[in-house]
Amino acid sequence: AAFGGVPPEAARSHRRMLGALFLWCLVPLPFVYILMPAFWFTAALVGLWRLVQAEKVWKPGAWIQNGIGLVVLAAAIAAGGLAVGPLRPLGHLLVLLTAARVAMVDDLRDVRRALPAVFLVWVVSVVSSFHVTLLLYFVASIGVWWFVGMRVLLDGLSEDVGDDLGRPRLRHVVAATLVSLILAVPLFVLLPRLGSPVLAGPSFGRSSGFSTSVHLSRRGSIQESSEQALSLRSTDGRELESLWARVRATGFHMVMPGSWTYIKTGLEAVERDGNGRIWLDPEVRSLDGARAIEIRQWVRQRFLFLPEGTVAVEFPGPLFRDPAGGLRVPRGRPLPTSFLVWARDEPLPGGRPPEARDTYLPRRNPAIADYARSVVGGRRGLAAAARIESHLRTEFEYSLEDGGRPGRDPVAWFLFERRSGHCEYFAGAMVEMLRHVDVPARLVSGYSGGYLSADGDELIVREANAHTWVEVWGGDDRGWQTFDPTPAVGVGAIQPMEAFAKLLTWLANVEVFFDRSIL
Q1: What are phi and psi of 496, to 5 degrees?
Q2: Which of 201, 214, 277, 382 is the most buried (most CB within 10 A)?
Q3: Dihedral angle at the C-alpha atoms of 324, 328, 331, 333, nearest 10 degrees?
Q4: Per-residue pLDDT tens over the stretch 355-411
């Protein structure tokens, strides 16, 4: 039959195809932080409208189009502008202007003009993250783009030659996809080494996990990570003690208001006995009442993570002990996958006496000092610590949400304005309050809680279990005592390892393998 031109339903099909393609390109954006939700959500509504209302054509005049451009520009400026880096506002502009172009598409010619902008949106979505799940999206996207490209090319040729050339064939799309994947391998090798995410820049969100520094002035909501950090397994097959669910790295010292980091000086090479064991307390060299635990660290860190009650450690390699009692691996040395510790079912007193850094304050805040004195009510030492711990637990709320700008003194902002926050705020506030009443205290970081196996002999600790607490000096007879001012809802607890938790752990391990062994 003679080709009778482009039928009316072809234009609707093109508009519908572009709406679906735009929605597909937006899929990763809700899961990364390059765009704020209001922008990708608005763009998604436009793509959805174009998909389900393909018969409608919107052709605004030049004045309206210019007005839309001004609104888009104002929205990008209102969302922070260049204050969060140049690439975020450019991403906001790109997505909204592309949404406007998609909304105004009429015929195949308009589709051709809109495709480069839609393609840029897809590129931004792809390079904003290197999560393992992006591989599936990337592979599918290549097939989608080849299909759309062939479809647009064939429909255009059909108009030119006056005959319907049909639709793209599946085998051509598959072949083109495979070739593209082969060509893309160098990009997947190169781009992660340029930094991830490439385009997102400073973000308003971050994932939970152990860090060697604490900055209370840092903004952003915290997303709980399912990545596996370490595991504890009893070598005798008996159930693990609940005490061992708190795993310590080291104590931090204050460098400025609201900022803490680990102690980098005063390291000592550890000594081993004839069996190759390292004793944490020189006065305690007996394994009576202690049980062996195998610890496997999945995260490469500078420290060994030791459960409370640890007496001795067996580690194949050099170690250094810092003044806060942390065991540190030499820089540049790969961490063994596992090591052994011997731990008792009760905390062990001891540790070095407090130093000047354990009472140091970069500057005293009279308001915090007065507040601390009113809370402790004349109590001293461990009694004062117990009172502050109880006060913070009951009078303040736990939250992982972004609370605004902490200002120059984040602890004062937490105590007097925000009155809610995550564990770092609670621990940091307790340490500062104690130091304002001259009680030696330090901030301690590690993990708390995890998923316990059905037999109770293995504990899986995730990055979501990262936690910060407080140690207070109780005198030569009691040493450093543990206090945790964070409300119970914010302290990682021991949970049964159910099927869903196993799936999360497996997926997280796949992600770790992808990040460390492939990227």
Answers
A1: -65, 145
A2: 214
A3: 180
A4: 999 999 988 999 999 999 999 998 999 999 999 999 999 999 999 888 777 878 999
Q: Which residues of the chain are under the pLDDT cut of 50?
A: 1-5, 195-205
Residue 85: the pLDDT is: 59
pTM score: 0.69
Tokens (6 digits) for 362: 């970069």
Residue-wise over 248-265: b if at least 16 C-beta within 10 A, else e?
bbbbbbbeebbbbebbee
Alpha-carbon distance of 447 to 208, in angstroms, equals 11
What are the Cα distances from residue 26, in Å, to 46, 62, 63, 329, 331?
Answer: 11, 27, 28, 43, 41
The answer to whether the beta carbons of residues 468 and 424 sit under 8 Å apart is yes
Question: Treating both helix axes as pointing N-terminal to C-terminal, what angle do 423-436 and 381-395 enclose, rounded to 10 degrees?
Answer: 140
Q: Torsion angle of alpha carbons 471, 474, 476, 482, nearest 10°?
A: -30
Tens-digit pLDDT profile for residues 207-266: 788 988 999 988 777 878 777 889 999 999 999 999 999 999 999 999 888 899 998 888
Q: From CA 33, how far away is CA 512, in angstroms rounded? A: 20
The alpha carbons of the chain give a radius of gyration, in whole angstroms, of: 29
Distance CA 437, CA 229 (A): 36
Do residues 244 and 291 touch, judged by C-beta distance below 8 A?
no
- Do residues 25 and 117 lie in contact, with contact meaning Cβ atoms separated by under 8 Å? no
Model pLDDT, residue 84: 53
Contact 467, 448 (CB under 8 A): yes
Tokens 């002990």, residue? 321
Contact 433, 367 (CB under 8 A): no
Residue 330, token pair as written in the block: 């030499």
**Cβ contacts of 374 within 8 Å, gap of 6 or more:** none
Q: How many helices (H) and strands (E) does the chain have?
A: 12, 22
**Cα dihedral across residues 267, 273, 279, 284: positive or negative:** negative
And the tokens for 429? 């506030």
Q: What is the dihedral of CA 309, 312, 317, 318, to 10 degrees?
A: 90
8 Å CB contact between 437 and 481: no
Look at residues 441, 341, 329 and name the one whose alpha carbon lies nearest to residue 385.
Answer: 441
C-beta of residue 303 within 8 angstroms of C-beta of residue 326: yes
pLDDT score at 1 = 35
Give residue 17's pLDDT.
Answer: 93
For 321, the token pair is 């002990």
Cross-strand pairs, 291: 343
